[in-house]
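S1.2 Input.
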Amino acid sequence: MATTKDAKRLPSGRIKYRGETFAGFNKPKRTPGKTKKSAVLAKKGSEIKLVRFGDPKMSIKKISPADGLIFALGTSVIRQKINFRQDIGLVRHGNDTS
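S1.3 Output.
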């Protein structure tokens, strides 16, 4: 396994290892055009290892504030229905008896 001596620290503070630059140890970066979506130069003690991960065909789904609001509204409607059913005796302890 490689050691920290195999990686070179650049004047900008970044790390160069096997022709790739990284922001630092244990800092993931995107790798467009590679076999995996991301890479990280992992460090444990004085040993380092280049780890690639992520399926390049899968999209990264980020939740926008609007999506979060829609999700919150949907769950609050469901909670209101459950509470209503509990109030009239249709549901006991979350189990539907109908």
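S1.4 Remarks. The chain has two domains: 2-53, 65-96.
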